[in-house]
Each structure stands twice: as C-alpha cells, then as structure tokens.
Amino acid sequence: MKILIVRVGAMGDVLHALPGVAALRKARPDLKIDWVADPRWAPLLVDAQGTGPIVNRVHLAETRVWSKSPASSATLRSILELRGALRKEHYDLVVDMQGTLRSGVIGWMAGAPQFVGYSDPRESLAAWFYSRRLTRKGTHVVEQGAALLSQATGIELSPADVVLPRDPTAEAWAEAAVRSRPLLMLAPGAGWGAKQWPAERFGDVAREASLKQSDCVVNARSADDVLAARVVSASDGAARTMVCDIAQLVALMRRTDLFVGGDSGPMHLAAAQAVPLVALFGPTDPERNGPWGPGAKTILRDPASGTSYKRTDTVDPGLANISVKAVVEALSRLI
User: What confidence score (pLDDT) does residue 304 get?
Assistant: First the structure.
C-alpha cells in the first residue's frame, strides 16, 4: 500500500502531523509513506540524501514561488512537475492533514482512488476534492491527525514519539556553535504579532539566565532579523544571535537544555525533541496547539487571553501580562 501525506507547512503544522505518521510507520513498517511539503520544511522529514526515519520520500511543493508569481511560467512548470511526480507513484491513498484549498488541490493532483480529509477542513472548499470526509476526533491537533490516519487506514493509532533526520553537516555545525552548557534558546518570533511576547522581556530573561552561567542564544530567521536584534540589545550582552537553517536548528535543538518561546515552529520543535521548555501562550489555545512531546514543559497563559486565533500585529493583552519573573521562576523549576 502506498500512502501520500499532504501537509505542506508551516513548520509547526508539519511537526504536529508527524506523531500520527510516526505511529503509522511503527504499526506498519512495510508501507510506503511519502509526503508533500514546502522545501523549507523538508529537513524535518528527510536528510540531504532524501532519506528519513519516518517517510520514504518528500515531494516538494514550491509554494513560495506559486504565491509570489501565481501566473508565471515558473509556477506553471513547478505545479506540472509536482503533478507528474505524484501521478507517477500511483498512490493508493492520499490523506490531507492540512485542510486548505491548496492542499486539497495538491492531493487531488495525485489521482489516487482514495483521497481523505476532515469533514470540517480549515478551508471548506478543500472538502470538495475528497472522496471520503472523516469526522475530526480529539482535542489537540496531534490527536486529531492520528485519528484521521487511523480512520483513513483502518489501523488503530495513537500519537508516537518522533525521530527527526540527522544531517552530518548540520550536526558538525551545531557542535561547533555551542560554547558551553547549559544552553538556553530563546525564540521570540511567532506567526503573527499577537503571539509574540515582548522582545525586551526575552532580553531580561537572558540577563537572569546569564547569572547561572548559561550560554543563551536567540533563534534568528536571518542575519538582519530585527526581533532577534532587539532581544540581544535588551540582554546587555547576555544573549547572542544564532542564525541557522532548519537542518541546523534541528541539530542545535538536540544540544539545547532549556527553551523559552511562544506558539511557534521552534517551540514545537523543542517539544518534539524533549527539550525542557517554557511555552508562552496568548490568543491560541494550548489545549489544541500546545507543545507535544515527552519532555518537561511549563505552559504560561494569563486568564485575560481569549482564544481568538486572530492574526493581529498587536501583542495579546493576556500574553503581555506574563511577567519576566514568572518565566524565570518557571525555568528554575525545570532546572
């Protein structure tokens, strides 16, 4: 049986889908399980040689090219190449774990006899493409993903621990990048402003951590990451910026002893790799989107936060109520 998973991104979405797919791999190691993902997130699934511990192959959906130039010849060529690669595999089952119009179209392009998705996908138009619509079960999105795969395949599944690929080059880079232990990683970014705890407070946390001789690094998306620069400036030299790609971030997280961040991809990566963490939540519900993994974790959320999921630029009032003292005390308990 050949199965295709469609979960293109973002980083946290891919990580949330993995425990269900890991459970399927564990239950049926004989299955061929492939995945469609944005190139940015492929290192979460396979190494530089294209092999991984959970999936057999990753098909790349160049969504940034598509979004930037939807009517260009490059976009058309990219879509047709993906369609051809998917059709060539003759999948028996396609499972849309994303639930958007885009993922619905991608899954439909595979031409499989069975295309399964939620009966209430994130974007309702996605359901038009499914041959089977299944009821969403579970509270956390990880539980929901495992239940969807279980219903789609008829195999009893519970979310399993995730093993991520090891890239030798990235591992060597991370080993050289760590100056001392314990290593504390701060991740101030998030998908939108309402989920971002003030950068200056991350800097205050770094100063407190420096008193305990921690090597404190700030996850940065690029060398000119303004948010990371604000954290470093506020830390008075206690923190340093760490710019890395996804493979390097995975490797660095294996060496991370403590993590602080909001509802973001790096936080979900830390949870997946059992890093003790403090998660800062505002407009998103930790019961549904919280850190999932075997490590120690503390979730801080103020009662003033309402579950809105609104993509606003202003920090959520409840999130803003979380103090530096509360975060430092949570870190101390984890230590």
Answer: 94
Cα 19 from Cα 236, distance rounded (Å): 39
What is the Cα–Cα distance from 269 to 13, expressed in whole angstroms?
11
Cα(149)–Cα(158) distance, integer angstroms: 10
CATH number at residue 217: 3.40.50.2000
Phi, psi of 61 (to 5 degrees): -105, 110
Q: Provide the Cα torsion 274, 278, 279, 282; round to 10°.
A: 170
What pLDDT was estimated at residue 214?
83
For residue 169, report the phi and psi dihedrals to the nearest 5 degrees.
-65, -45
- Indicate the number of domains in the chain: 2
pLDDT in tens, 156-198: 999 999 999 999 999 999 999 999 989 999 999 999 999 999 9
Can you read off the two tokens belonging to residue 124? Answer: 């309702």
Distance in angstroms (rounded) separating the CA atoms of residues 20 and 22: 5
Specify the pTM: 0.95
Residue 213 has pLDDT above 80, yes or no: no
Residues 6+ apart with CB under 8 A from 279: 261, 262, 263, 267, 271, 286, 290, 291, 297, 298, 299, 300
pLDDT tens figures, 100-119: 999 999 999 999 999 999 99
- Kindly state whether residue 312 falls inside one of the protein's structural domains: yes
Residues 75 and 80: their CA atoms lie apart, in Å, by 9
- Side-by-side strand order, sheet with 183-187: 239-243, 215-220, 183-187, 258-262, 277-281, 297-301
Which residue range is the domain that position 286 belongs to?
Answer: 171-334
Q: Say if residue 188 is in the same domain as residue 111.
A: no
Q: Which residues of 134-157 are buried (b: 16+ CB within 10 A; e: fewer)?
A: bebeeebbbbbbbbbbbbbbeeeb
Tokens describing residue 329: 């005390």
55 and 197 both lie in a single domain: no
CA distance 328 to 71: 50
Q: What pLDDT is attached to residue 335?
A: 83
